Amino acid sequence: xxxxxxxxxALIFPLDLLCLGCxxxxxxxxxxxxxxxxxxxxxxxxxxxxxxxxxxxxxIGVWIFQPRINKLFERNTSFA
Length: 80
What we know:
Mean pLDDT: 90
Radius of gyration: 19 Å
Number of strands: 0
Shape: elongated
Helix content: over 70%
Number of helices: 3
Strand content: under 5%
Low-confidence stretches: none
Largest sheet: none
Structural class: mainly alpha
Distance between the termini: 64 Å
């Protein structure tokens, strides 16, 4: 192996964990924001756990989310 392999691993592993944490936070934030926008009230974790699960499987969840997002935009632009 290469003599600098342990250094590269020690550098990449924490960055990979940071990236994973940021990804999970983005999914959590978007699921909570969508549910709160639809409900027009503060939501709890059990209110948006389904949205979070669907966002984790984005290729399936996008087919469910897009009509809901379009409906939110229609509702908000009808007053303009």
